Amino acid sequence: MAKTIKDTDYLVISARVKALETGLLTRERMEQLLDVRTGGEAAKLLQEWGYPQLDPDRPEAMDAALSAAREATLADLAEGLPDPRYLDLFKIKYDYHNAKALLKAEVTGVSADRMLMDMGRVSAAALAAALRERDQENLPETLSAAVAEAREVLDTTRDPQLADIVLDRWCYRDMAGLAAETGSAFLQGYVAAQVDAVNLRTAVRTLRMGKGAEFLRGALLEGGTFSPEAVEKAASGGGAGLRDLCGTTRFRAAAEAGSDALNGGSLTEFEKLCDDAVEDYLAGAQYVPFGEAPLVGYLAARETEYTNLRIILLGRAAGIDPAVIRTRLRRSYV
Fold it and tell me: What is the CATH classification number for the domain harbouring 124?
């Protein structure tokens, strides 16, 4: 029988997380990265703040360095962690991202190498070999079932978008199952908030593309605080009901931006506010003295930080105006 893990078992790791939180990049530091004149100066600042050497002129090398920094953080936290499944939850999405890239590569004949991210539970090379050889025996059970169904859909329809929908459904089902296994209400709430964000995005994107209710029904995910049926109903009639659906929730601003996006407004702003709403759920973890909540909050904050760094560094390299980059940054945890 598995040992019951109590919040007091997280006393040591919670103290470690509180110390690590002081190293998170604040909004002020993000502004410094935007204000310096060159990408080289931005990379130098990041080194001063504890990041490895980054080459802003080589996006692939920069991504590899950020991935290495993420892996170092996970390895650091793995020592003394009462339940390693909390780390796995932040790896799952990369398994499914890589599966999408590899299956699309099978259809298009274009190499997936540049799309793969070696940050999942399964190494990108091992997953590529499993799919290439059609031998999924050593993959996690849920991932194996997901790949099998997505490949069947792809073989039948030749439509990568439909295969992606299948993999997204399995991805969040995998995450929800793992969260439930831990018994953590906070972790389950985090997954539900992510599902809500995905479903809201899906509703707005579907309407913008002019696809019908049947497509939306097949794309919406189970497991959020808003049922798929409620989201589908709110999206009917051009999406006018999205504001009412989310009116008293943390997704209110995102839903309003979504309605605006359906009338010519910014899709980028809408999607950013969806992410910010999930961050709002996590914000309370900073005030919990110990337990799994501070750990989950910190891991999610690091994910947001890596996203923001990619937006800043790749945006600078592409010559995008800092004012435009600033509007794309996700809300910081600190």
Answer: 1.20.1690
